[in-house]
Design goal:
Distance between the termini: 22 Å
Structural class: alpha+beta
Shape: globular
Strand content: 15-25%
CATH topology of the largest domain: Jelly Rolls
Number of domains: 2
């Protein structure tokens, strides 16, 4: 097992039974470990591959929590903060602060510390690689050589600053989380997606990254852009133009479009499209709503357009996706 982080502390005991209120987070064909403690529910689901291990961790905090953790093995780990804010306070070495929709690749030595969680839902995706996996890529990505050899207390990051999870990465992560294959086909598919994520991360290293002129975004600007993002998520059934969105948050449309892409790694149009599709997939998996009503909730007035768009992004029509999800849930 390559499990990079284990969580413990007084009153925390893991079991393979999923708490009833977490049932909707279950992923078929994964190893499940769940625990409950005062003010906190932990749900860890893992998929073991030949050279890596994928772990999706849901941390549901009803109050601010300080959770002890250990990294018991030396390995390279990609950490993706898919939701919430994660603050790792290491007993040795600098603390690691991972904000919502950010990631980094770390070389982890054996370490321990505390994970500080504010109240709310936090989702962490980790992909751990065995020690012999990354060296095969050093010829193409020289930064990996220094990354693996530099002596650094605690966790050695590939990037000095954490990177935004861009749209292409979000799509690949979505494929990992909602893989519909079984058996060997599932393993091959997940391995391919892990390599895809790794290549995306390595290609963005300084020697490969193209120079780009960044807009200065003050704290107030970032708050306004976050407000725009929330407005879009809360009104997915409504077609809000860029001008209207800019008016609602009090920012000019040029700064909104450019700042949104810089902060969240995607255009407003692509963000809304992906968010609508992810919500449609959730409703197809978790509810008995008619597909026509789900299409309308995703902002599609024309049923045929919804079916075509869904199939284009997910490979199968929504009806087949719903049947497949039901079959997987029954077999879980």
């Amino acid at each position: 097992m390559l499990l990079p982080l284990t969580y413990g502390g007084q009153g925390i005991r893991f079991d393979t039974l999923l708490p009833a209120h977490c049932e909707r987070y279950r992923i078929a064909h994964t190893t499940l470990n769940a625990a409950q403690a005062p003010g906190l529910t932990i749900l860890m689901q893992t998929s073991q591959l030949p050279h890596s291990q994928i772990t999706l961790t849901h941390l549901l905090a009803n109050e601010p929590v300080e959770l002890p953790f250990q990294a018991s093995k030396q390995c390279a780990v990609m950490l993706f903060a898919l939701k919430g804010k994660l603050e790792f306070r290491l007993d040795q070495g600098p603390d690691v602060h991972l904000q919502h929709v950010h990631y980094n690749l770390f070389r982890m030595d054996r370490s321990s510390g505390h994970l500080l969680l504010p109240r709310g839902k936090h989702i962490l995706l980790t992909i751990a690689f065995d020690r012999h996996y990354l060296p095969q890529y050093t010829a193409n990505f020289p930064s990996l050589q220094a990354f693996q050899e530099t002596s650094f207390p605690g966790w050695q990051p590939l990037y000095a600053r954490h990177r935004t999870i861009a749209l292409d990465m979000q799509r690949t992560i979505g494929s990992l989380r909602h893989c519909a294959f079984e058996g060997a086909a599932r393993d091959y598919f997940l391995e391919a997606k892990v390599v895809e994520l790794l290549m995306m991360a390595l290609y963005e290293t300084p020697e490969n990254a193209a120079p780009r002129q960044l807009m200065v975004l003050k704290k107030r600007d970032q708050e306004m852009l976050a407000s725009a993002r929330n407005l879009l998520l809360e009104n997915m059934d409504e077609h809000i133009s860029t001008l209207e969105l800019a008016r609602r948050i009090g920012m000019n449309d040029f700064k909104l479009k450019r700042g949104f892409k810089q902060l969240f790694g995607t255009t407003i149009f692509e963000f809304v499209t992906v968010a609508r599709m992810e919500e449609a997939k959730r409703l197809l998996r978790e509810t008995d709503l008619p597909i026509k009503r789900i299409a309308a909730g995703a902002g599609y007035k024309n049923m045929s357009n919804f079916i075509a768009a869904f199939k284009r992004r997910n490979g199968i029509p929504p009806g087949d996706f719903k049947r497949k999800s039901y079959q997987m849930a029954m077999g879980a």
